[in-house]
From TrEMBL:
One MF term in the entry's GO annotations: zinc ion binding
Oxidoreductase recorded as keyword: no
Annotated segments matching region Disordered: 93-115
UniProtKB keywords: Metal-binding, Zinc, Zinc-finger
Pfam families registered for this protein in UniProt: Pol_BBD (PF22936), Retrotran_gag_2 (PF14223), zf-CCHC (PF00098)
Cell membrane among keywords: no
InterPro entries on file: Peptidase_aspartic_dom_sf, PolX-like_BBD, Znf_CCHC, Znf_CCHC_sf
UniProt protein name: CCHC-type domain-containing protein
Domain CCHC-type span(s) in chain numbering: 127-143
PANTHER family linked to this entry: OS08G0421700 PROTEIN, PBF68 PROTEIN
Gene3D superfamilies the record matches: Acid Proteases, Zinc finger, CCHC-type
Amino acid sequence: MLDSKPVISQVQELQLILHDIHAEGMTLSESFQVAAIIEKLPPAWKEFKNYLKHKRKEMNVEELIVRLRNEEDNRNSERRFFTPNVAKANVVEHGDKYNAKRKPRPSGKDSKLGAKKGTFKKKFVGKCYNCDGMGHKASDCKKPKRAREANTVDDISHDVSNINLCAVVFEVNLIGSNPREWWIDTGATRHVCSDKEMFATLQESENGEKLYMGNSATSEIKGQGKVVLKMTSGKELTLNNVLYVPDIRKNLMFGSLLNKHGFRIVFESDKVVVSKNGMYVGRGYVCDACLS
């Protein structure tokens, strides 16, 4: 999502996409839809996104939209309050000290103090994401930062492997690729590999489970296992629960899942850099509008 557009309108567009997926015969659980919407919130909503991820009570889509609408209304109200005209009130204009005439200083009863002109800070009326208290923001909270809690939306996203829909991959079968290369796909919901030799462990299956692509095509899943990748730094990156799909033409790395497990993925100057806890892991480059 973009900061330049209203969040609610972008959520409605995302709901239309989810509706189209449902119309194609694919089932998306309520928890998956909630996690997907939260994950797509724009950068300016980062603090609110973390608050939603830490909520213990599970929400449905309607409850999430109500919360997003209330938050957006509060943000719009604060934005309207702090206007440029109000900000000018604290600017003092100095005239020519030699030519300007001084006004006589009032005395006696006429010297009553009036209200000073200027801005005043509106008290925050929302909820703290850190302590759940009212009247202050998490950045101003005096209580210790709480640790990540169990049963959060992160756990729902991590358990996406239990959903019947295995992956949503856009136009992945249209372009040929090196079977040893891996591509970071932020739209996929699982790691996918087409090269059987790359699996360190593989549990083959013939249950007819299908992988659905964004172009309405399907490919059969032949198994699931673990892949160990040798990164440019010399370190090894282990991908668990990787789907073995021989028909797919690109090996896909689920970027959002790496991010949820503490990896930092930075896209800059036609390249992508992967690190964890400040330690360099590896990098890739943009190729044909994709990241390899």
